[in-house]
Write a structure and sequence with these properties.
heterodimer; B: mainly alpha; Arc Repressor Mutant, subunit A; disordered C terminus
C-alpha cells in the first residue's frame, strides 16, 4: 500500500520511465493533485529529456529522398 | 508555391502544422533538422546502424501520419520526436529479446558529438552547450550510477528488471537511479545558475532602488 505523502523519492525513476506499473500509476494520481511534486517531476523530466543528447555523433547513410519515397508510398 | 528556402525559415511547430496538411517539403526540412539526433539515439539503443536507420525512417513516417495529433502545449517538437524515437527503438530491442545482461549499452566511450544543423548561430551554440553540459554531468557520476541510468533510459528497463539482471537488491538500484538523477538535476541547474543569479541580482537591485 502507498501512503498519501509526497512521491519525491519516486520522481527520478518516473522521469526515466523505469517505475513498475503500480508505482507509476500511484505517481500519476498524486501529480494530479500536488503542485509541489508536479514541479519536481517537471525538473526531472527536463533532465531525462537532456539524456537523449548524450549520444555519440552519428550520421545516416540514407538521403532524405528515401524519406520522401516512403512518404509517397504511405 | 512554398520553396525549400521558405521551409528553412519556419520554426519546428510551423513545420509540423504544414506536415499535417501533407506538405512534403515541410517534412523534408524537419528531416534535415532532426535526422541525426534521432539516428544517434536509435543507434545508441539498438546498437546497429541498419536497424537504427530503419527506426529513423519509421519515426519520420509516423510524423507524416500523425502530425495532426501533435500538441504544442504539451511538448516541444524535439521532445515529441525524441519520445517517439526512444519508445520505438526500445520496442525493437524488446522484440529482439536482447537479454539485459548482454546489453552493449555504455557511456564510457562516448564523447560529445558534432553539433547538429541549426537554424541560426545562436541556436547552434545553445545546442553545443547543452550537449557539453549533459556529457560533463554524466562524466561526474560514479560508474554504478551511470550503468543504472543507461539501462533505465536507453534500455527502457524498470528498476526491478535492472535489479534482477545485475543481481543487486532493488533498494540499491532505486538509490543509484535517484542519486544519479538528483546529481544531474543539480549539476545542470548550477551550470545555468550564474545567469539566473545575475538576473535575480538586477531585479533585487531595482526593487531596492524603488524603495
Amino acid at each position: 500500500m502507498f501512503d498519501e505523502t509526497h512521491v519525491s523519492d519516486l520522481l527520478p525513476a518516473y522521469a526515466l520511465g523505469s517505475l513498475d506499473a503500480d508505482e507509476a500509476s500511484h505517481v500519476e494520481e498524486h501529480l494530479l493533485s500536488c503542485w509541489i511534486c508536479r514541479n519536481e517531476s517537471n525538473a526531472f523530466q527536463t533532465v531525462a529529456e537532456q539524456l537523449s543528447l548524450a549520444t555519440p555523433a552519428a550520421s545516416l547513410r540514407s538521403s532524405r529522398i528515401v524519406v520522401m519515397i516512403c512518404v509517397s508510398l504511405s | 508555391m512554398t520553396s525549400s528556402a521558405d521551409y528553412a525559415r519556419y520554426d519546428d511547430e510551423r513545420l509540423i502544422s504544414l506536415i499535417a496538411q501533407l506538405q512534403a517539403g515541410a517534412l523534408d526540412q524537419l528531416y534535415d533538422r532532426y535526422n541525426r539526433p534521432i539516428f544517434s539515439l536509435a543507434l545508441m539503443i539498438v546498437g546497429d546502424r541498419a536497424t537504427a536507420e530503419e527506426i529513423t525512417l519509421d519515426v519520420f513516417m509516423r510524423v507524416w501520419q500523425k502530425a495532426g495529433s501533435y500538441r504544442a502545449d504539451q511538448a516541444r517538437v524535439s521532445t515529441w520526436l525524441t519520445h517517439i524515437a526512444r519508445h520505438h527503438a526500445i520496442d525493437v530491442l524488446r522484440r529482439r529479446a536482447v537479454r539485459l545482461d548482454q546489453s552493449a549499452l555504455s557511456w564510457d566511450e562516448i564523447t560529445p558529438g558534432a553539433p547538429l544543423p541549426a537554424q541560426n548561430p545562436g541556436e547552434l551554440a545553445e545546442q553545443s552547450l547543452r550537449r557539453e553540459r549533459i556529457h560533463a554531468a554524466i562524466a561526474r557520476l560514479p560508474a554504478d550510477q551511470k550503468q543504472a541510468l543507461m539501462l533505465a533510459y536507453f534500455g527502457g528497463y524498470t528498476q526491478t528488471q535492472i535489479a534482477e539482471a545485475l543481481k543487486q537488491p532493488l533498494g540499491t538500484i532505486k538509490t543509484r537511479l535517484r542519486l544519479a538523477m538528483q546529481k544531474l538535476r543539480d549539476f545542470l541547474h548550477d551550470e545555468q545558475e550564474p545567469g539566473d543569479k545575475s538576473a535575480q541580482a538586477v531585479n533585487t537591485y531595482n526593487m531596492s532602488e524603488e524603495d
